[in-house]
């Protein structure tokens, strides 16, 4: 099938996190061209975007105003999310060396994938992920790309709601100064997640424009930095081993007391519990690559950030990407290492929840919890905006804005995600499934096959080294996806999963 010649104006703002300066200066109507109404496409961004009066109207003519440093910040922001909370668990099931090797590999592959995206977008002047899909395979390509982005965003929202479900009861418990989790409704994560969804997230998601909410993503990154500092600090505070009998004891006790009780345990046992492993393989190792892939997904954001960049060149954008990936790589490794070295094999799939094994009244951890909870609560509506827009584009194309539809889509989406979170046994299932399906598609498979199709054969023959490399990259993605999915399904079917559950 030949790539369609016409260019299509698809979603220019795939994720509401990076809206500034993204409004096209002008959009030409051409014959045969199905051009989306920019007023409709960007209706949710109105008032948040600035139009440039000085430029001539051209299809790809966006006036990028964002500096190099700010773009690094924006992309880092897109990379960083709930994935960081699962990495210590991944390290506990791979060992430090194997983890480092895999994390390095995923980071390098992620950077290569951005190289493919930038090269493909340069050829056709495309600045949105789905547009690449359209250019490569027509409407099916665009739909599949939109579907993967939607699935990834639904996964991200589910993981955020899961954090609310697991952390909010602990925060309330601490504020009420209760010694033990009781069966009252306000300490039940499922009720709390519904309550937060209805009272905070839904009203925000019903706004017609993102407005200042779009800026709150910067706050999320700061919260994650705060989380990382707390994880490093806690490594030197929390004794090892945590006496198992203290796990269920709540109430005030000092670290000295914990350490003394730990001393009472046998020395060899303690040594075994507190020795890091450098290379581990077990049934849970299957989740490692999906967790890492999930953690590095930022690819739908790369082209919009490229569009916003001041004096954009592929080289400059690649530098932006490499720097963001490197910074996140270091943060991910530190969070995983210190989280693992605090709890060793007892680390849970959601690292922050593991600290409830130590001291539920710890002020630092309480502050981290409140910060992370605020960040994820504000991020859910931001991620919901592009998902709703994608659904609207797929199902109700070219239709006038309707409040009923706007409210209904948000309500149905939030209801489904709530049900998913209530019935999901743990966050690992979310990281596992999303990290083994949409994440490898967005990082490996799509950039490679889009590249293969978009770069003209006159420029790079099908058997040229870059194209063969791209195909190998797609195959690697397919292999990782099949392997991860099979191992996860085997793990579920055999019922082995211990999952480091957080309840
Ligand atoms: N942007 C995403 O889809 C996920 C993000 N990389 C995270 O770790 O949460």
UniProtKB/TrEMBL annotation:
InterPro entries: AA_transpt_TM (IPR013057). One of its GO terms (cellular component) is apical plasma membrane. Keywords: Membrane, Transmembrane, Transmembrane helix. Pfam families: Aa_trans. GO terms for biological process: cellular response to potassium ion starvation; glutamine secretion; histidine transport; intracellular amino acid homeostasis; L-glutamine import across plasma membrane; L-histidine import across plasma membrane; positive regulation of transcription by RNA polymerase II; response to acidic pH. GO terms for molecular function: L-alanine transmembrane transporter activity; L-asparagine, sodium:proton antiporter activity; L-glutamine, sodium:proton antiporter activity; L-histidine, sodium:proton antiporter activity. The chain crosses the membrane at residues 72-90, 96-118, 143-163, 183-205, 212-233, 287-307, 319-343, 363-385, 406-424, 430-456, 468-490. It is found in: Membrane. It is a multi-pass membrane protein. Residues 65-490 form the Amino acid transporter transmembrane domain. This is Sodium-coupled neutral amino acid transporter 3. It comes from Heterocephalus glaber. The lineage of its organism: Eukaryota, Metazoa, Chordata, Craniata, Vertebrata.
């Amino acid at each position: 099938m030949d790539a369609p010649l016409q260019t299509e104006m698809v979603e220019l703002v795939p994720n509401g996190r990076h809206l500034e300066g993204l409004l096209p200066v002008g959009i030409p109507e051409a014959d045969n061209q199905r051009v989306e109404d920019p007023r409709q496409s960007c209706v949710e961004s109105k008032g948040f975007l600035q139009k440039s009066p000085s430029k001539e109207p051209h299809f790809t003519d966006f006036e990028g105003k964002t500096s190099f440093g700010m773009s690094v910040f924006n992309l880092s922001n897109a990379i960083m999310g709930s994935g960081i909370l699962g990495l210590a668990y991944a390290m506990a099931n791979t060992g430090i060396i194997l983890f480092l090797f895999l994390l390095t590999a995923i980071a390098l592959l992620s950077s290569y994938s951005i190289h493919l995206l930038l090269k493909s977008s340069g050829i056709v002047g495309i600045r949105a992920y789905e547009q690449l899909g359209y250019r490569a395979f027509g409407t099916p390509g665009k739909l599949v790309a939109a579907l993967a982005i939607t699935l990834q965003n639904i996964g991200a929202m589910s993981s955020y709601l899961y954090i609310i479900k697991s952390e909010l009861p602990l925060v309330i418990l601490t504020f009420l100064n209760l010694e033990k989790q009781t069966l009252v409704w306000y300490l039940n994560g499922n009720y709390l997640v519904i309550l937060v969804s209805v009272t905070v997230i839904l009203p925000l998601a019903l706004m017609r424009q993102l407005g200042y909410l779009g800026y709150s993503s910067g706050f999320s990154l700061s919260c994650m930095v705060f989380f990382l500092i707390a994880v490093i600090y806690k490594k030197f505070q929390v004794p090892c081993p945590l006496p198992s009998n203290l796990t269920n004891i709540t109430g005030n006790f000092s670290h000295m007391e914990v350490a003394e009780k730990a001393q009472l345990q046998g020395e060899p046992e303690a040594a075994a519990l507190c020795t890091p492993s450098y290379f581990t393989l077990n049934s849970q190792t299957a989740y490692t690559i999906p967790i890492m892939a999930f953690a590095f997904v930022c690819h739908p954001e790369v082209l919009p950030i490229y569009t916003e960049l001041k004096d954009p060149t592929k080289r400059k954008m690649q530098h932006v990407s490499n720097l963001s990936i490197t910074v996140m790589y270091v943060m991910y490794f530190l969070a995983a290492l210190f989280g693992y070295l605090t709890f060793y094999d007892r680390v849970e799939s959601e690292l922050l929840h593991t600290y409830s094994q130590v001291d539920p009244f710890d002020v630092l951890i309480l502050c981290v919890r409140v910060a992370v909870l605020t960040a994820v609560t504000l991020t859910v509506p931001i991620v919901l905006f592009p998902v709703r827009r994608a659904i609207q584009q797929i199902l109700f194309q070219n239709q006038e804005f309707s409040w009923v539809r706007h409210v209904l889509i948000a309500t149905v989406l939030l209801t489904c995600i709530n049900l998913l979170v209530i019935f999901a046994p743990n966050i690992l299932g979310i990281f596992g499934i999303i990290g083994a399906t949409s994440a490898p598609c967005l990082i490996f498979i799509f950039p490679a096959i889009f590249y293969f199709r978009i770069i003209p054969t006159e420029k790079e023959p099908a058997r040229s080294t870059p194209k063969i490399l791209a195909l190998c990259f797609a195959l690697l993605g397919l292999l990782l996806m099949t392997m991860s999915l099979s191992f996860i399904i085997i793990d579920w079917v055999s019922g082995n999963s211990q999952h480091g559950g957080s309840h």
